[in-house]
Every structure is written in C-alpha cells, then in structure tokens.
Amino acid sequence: MATGFAPVLEPEKKAQQPTTGPLTPINEIQARLLNYVQDIPDPRVSRTQKHLLTDILVIAILAVVATRSLREIAGAQGWEDMENYGISKQAWLSEFWELPNGIPSDDTFRRVFERIKPEALEQVLSQWLQHLMGSLAGEIVPIDGKNLKGSYDRNQGIKALHLVTAWASEQRLVLGQVKVEDKSNEITAIPALLELLDISGAIITIDAMGTQTEIVRQIRQKKADYVLALKANHPTLHSQVKNWFDQAQAHNFEGIIAFLIHKRYIPDPEQLNQQRFKCAAQMREPL
C-alpha cells in the first residue's frame, strides 16, 4: 500500500450514518470509504458472521494506511497488526462503525481477505484514493512494471511478484496495481489497470512495452493524453519516425513547428564529437 496519508484524526462527533448537515473533512473521508466498501460482495455464509464486512474492511484499510506519528501504530504488515490497530482505536472506531462484537480477530481478517476477490477490493481502493486526491488533470501518471523486492523464495521455488503500477507523481501515491506473471505480460495488464482508473486530463507515460494501438485508444477514450517510448520493438514505426526526423533535421525543420528540448555532447572513445538531442515536433497527422 502506498504511503503519503496524514494520520487519521479523532472526530468530534459520531458519524456512523451519513448526515444531512455539512461533513467535516475527516467525517467526509470516512463516509466516502464506507460507501465504497459496501459495494464489495460478502463471501461469507450468513450464519457464521459475527462482524460486519464493512467493519472488517475499514479497520484493515485504516491499519495499513496509518502513518507513523508520535506513538501511533504505523503501517500494518499483517493480520495481527490489523487486530492490534483495531483494539488500540476501538473507542474512536465505535463512533463510526457498529462493531457488534468488538474488534475482529487476526484469524477473521485472514479468512475474509482470503475469500474476497482481489479485483473488487483493488477497484474500491483505487476509487477511494482518487477521491482523496481529486482531479488528475495535467498531472503526469507513469505506468511501469517492477518486481517486488523480497517477494521471491528460491528454496520454495516462488518467483518474485511482478506488479504493473500507476503512480501519481505529484501526490506520490500509487493509484492502482495489477499483478502479472512476468514482464512479457505487461501488455495485457496495462489495459486492465487503466480500466480501474479515472485518468481524465492526466498525461500517461509508459515505456516501449506499452506502445500499443489498443492501449493508446483506451487512454484517449478515457480523455487522457500520453507520452510513449518508441524503440526497435516496433521496427516499422520506429524506422518511419526516425526517417521523418532525419529529413526534417536535414531541412532545418522548415515548415514544421518544432523546438529543441535538450542538447548535449556524449564523450565517446571512438567518436568524441557524438551529439545527442531531444526535439519535439508537431506531426501533420497523428501516428
């Protein structure tokens, strides 16, 4: 879970149910979170339920996103941490949630999360985070795939967990993640991740792996812009663009709206005067 949240503050009055009057910022956040988690289907058998699903989910989410502040419990890493967080905050939590049988045990957290569909929970968290942040208009949102450090176990033959992540640069928050088997599957994971997000007005950046027609179409359908890398994995398009810039440069970009972004010399033992530059140009027609 991404960091970057302020510690949850104690409210002055109870807000178990949405009120008709104006909400304070903290009460509004709690009410919105409740609205989102209510959409997650309960996988449990009715007769075995001692705790409300909304109570379990909200306590778990708050325990994970809680940040280190003074003596507060910080960033739950497991089921016991979630239970401990709930116990330490029970008086405050009871002002918001019913808690008919107190705080769920660590085993209850584990059993519930083992049965909940990850996609449903992921979508709820993404929606809640984006509500907290507001509009992404004009913000750069990189999408990239990385192996999660320490997630592999050679002795048990467990591969490293590979995640495709959307990152809100300005807020420094993870907007969403999708698990993939390896880097080669990022092409199918990126559309699934984009489907979870409200990226209207944002500028999406992806490396050469994500330079795909369908991905571009999806970004535009979601009313966002994009900056994609173009490398030799698309030989025809790469050659066309390279030739276009070569010809434009040879004619000093005559009749073309262009500007130099960056220019520098690269020391090279074999070619001391090697020059590299970055240039942006307006194309007559979109590629």
From TrEMBL:
This is Transposase. It comes from the Bacteria. GO terms for biological process: DNA transposition. Residues 139-253 form the Transposase IS4-like domain. Transmembrane segments: none annotated. InterPro entries: ISAs1_transpos, Transposase_11, Transposase_11-like, YbfD_N. Residues 1-22 are annotated as: Disordered. Residues 35-129 form the H repeat-associated protein N-terminal domain. NCBIfam families: transpos_ISAs1 (NF033564). It comes from Microcystis aeruginosa PCC 9717. One of its GO terms (molecular function) is transposase activity.
